Amino acid sequence: MPAPKRYVGIDNDLNGGMTDTGKIIRDARAFGIIPEAETCEGWLVQGIEDLWARVDAESEKYGFRVGNFPDDLRDRYLAIQASALAQARAAGWDGEAELAGDE
Question: Could you give the angle at which helices 20-31 and 71-90 cross, rounded to 10 degrees?
């Protein structure tokens, strides 16, 4: 029986972490569900799914709209996203594939 698949961690993820799992992790950091230093490296799929459910429940409180976040949460969210974009671009990601649908 093969070992369960484990997540590589946002710092080792494809496209500089610009993946669906990376988005869940960044959102969880912004909401304070996990510490900002948590990469989720080694997590099982079930742990990532649980994290997604917790992020989804928190985001639902604001109608899934960043513009509805309280100022401090919005500022933290935007800072985390800006940092992630800079790191992903430094790793060679440019987002063009996603826009073109060539993921």
Answer: 140
State if pTM tops 0.85: yes
Distance CA 11, CA 34 (A): 15
**How far apart are the two ends of the chain, measured CA to CA in Å?**
31
H or E element in which residue 100 lies = helix 96-100
Cβ atoms within 10 Å of 22's Cβ, excluding its own: 21
Per-residue pLDDT tens for 28-87?
A: 999 999 999 999 999 999 999 999 999 999 999 999 999 999 999 999 999 999 999 999
The domain segmentation of the chain, as residue ranges, is 10-96
CA–CA separation, 82 and 88 (whole Å) = 10
